[in-house]
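Worked example

This section walks through a single chain of length 153. The input is the sequence exactly as stored; nothing has been trimmed or padded.
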Amino acid sequence: MNGSSTTLLEIGYIDIMNGQHNWRDLHKAVISENDERMRNDLGHRSITSEYFLSGVQAIAQTGQILACDASGSRVGAWPFVAQNMILVSGLNKIVPTLQDALKRIWDYAYPLEDARARKVYGTPSLIGKCVILAKEGRPGRTTLILIDEVLGY
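Given that input, the structure is written out below as tokens.
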């Protein structure tokens, strides 16, 4: 499963998932379901996937990794339920402190996501759920991939 992410789009991951592969694409199953009750059920089950890929909105040099979204569909897997988390970020998301990371989300990432949502979905976005990953209790569960590029927002 993957959370919607401009970063994942920019690195070509979404193109790979739209092509030929032998992985079960839970994200595609969720977004292609027309029945709202079934889509919600698939969404709940998808966050327990073996692998969950996601972008991030901010990384504090003090050690925290942050992500927010409107409904929790992207950040729901972060705290506990996904067996393996793979987080991908450009270096542009690194800031000095947790306070700077929160400011980056509200003042930079959110306005860009709101503009994207209005264009793509015809509705505004919102910051409904936020996760701060400060320490991983299960060794090896979370992998952060830092790419020396400006990616996402």
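What to look for: The mean pLDDT is 89.
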